[in-house]
């Protein structure tokens, strides 16, 4: 994130996980990266919501399973009350069943706990810049959780039919949304104005009948516009 004059603004993160060692490991990863600042930590979802209310961070990085108020309920509370704070979910391969609710609750990203630390950093930065992010290792599991009934091949065909209504430029933008790129990054990549990207993204969401960038990203994966391997 940058100020209008181009100055780098530290990305402020609230971290919630009931395991102290996990929090310590994630904190170490983030604080070693210039421009990332862990401004608060919580052991449960209710405390995370309170921290967001007090600190108004850019991102709330939430574990799914926590005592009391879990990460899903916290996600719903944060996105409803504090929309300027984006939510990124920490997940494991065994927690696929929670993905649909997290998406419907407004989560902007999913990062695998056991994945490459660079994916965590990339995901936080993408989401803070207004993008959406799916860890490569869980992209296909997200698709499975959101996909309609029927075999994956049929869902892929249906997804390709849906994106066929888009223009060539809109499909280019959708593919980059699927990779977690922000509007500014897409604008630089395609050599167009950020405002034009914003118009394209709005049109994509409307024409594909999806609620947010994460769901658009899932559709991009399923349609084969992004390599989810």
TrEMBL record:
The keyword Phosphoprotein is annotated on this UniProt entry:
yes
Can you provide one Gene Ontology molecular function annotated for this UniProt record? DNA binding
Task: Name the CDD domains on file.
Answer: LuxR_C_like, REC_NarL-like
The species is Nocardiopsis aegyptia
GO biological process terms held by the UniProt record? phosphorelay signal transduction system; regulation of DNA-templated transcription
Q: Which SMART domains match?
A: HTH_LUXR, REC
Q: Where is the Response regulatory domain?
A: 12-128
Could you tell me which residue ranges the HTH luxR-type domain spans? 159-224
**What does the record list as coiled-coil region(s)?**
none
Q: Matching InterPro entries, A to Z?
A: CheY-like_superfamily, NreC/VraR/RcsB-like_REC, Sig_transdc_resp-reg_C-effctor, Sig_transdc_resp-reg_receiver, Tscrpt_reg_LuxR_C, WalR-like
UniProt keyword Transcription regulation present: yes
> What is the protein's given name?
DNA-binding NarL/FixJ family response regulator
Q: Which residues carry this modification: 4-aspartylphosphate?
A: 63
Keywords tagged on the record:
DNA-binding, Phosphoprotein, Transcription, Transcription regulation
